[in-house]
Specification:
The protein is an alpha+beta fold. It is 26% helix and 13% strand. It has a three-stranded antiparallel sheet with strand order 1-3-2. The radius of gyration is 12 Å and the shape is globular. The two termini are 16 Å apart.
């Protein structure tokens, strides 16, 4: 998200999957959570999520960028 310039406004969760696959070859289906929303929601110390919906966004929690999880 920091590369996208989206720290304060967030990034659409729907856009995260294609971006992660294109940049890193990562498919969420290979993780236990199986969806990006579930993956992000399991890491509340790092991410804030909008309520469900087509325009829902994820934001990094300020002060957490660069810290090890």
């Amino acid at each position: 998200m920091t590369d996208q310039g989206c720290v304060s406004e967030g990034m659409r969760i729907a856009a995260l999957g294609p971006l992660m696959h294109a940049r890193h070859g990562t498919r969420i289906s290979t993780f236990p959570e199986r969806t990006w929303r579930a993956y992000l929601a399991a890491r509340t110390e790092l991410y804030t999520l909008d309520p469900r919906g087509p325009e829902a966004r994820v934001r990094l929690r300020l002060g957490k960028v660069g810290e090890s999880a």
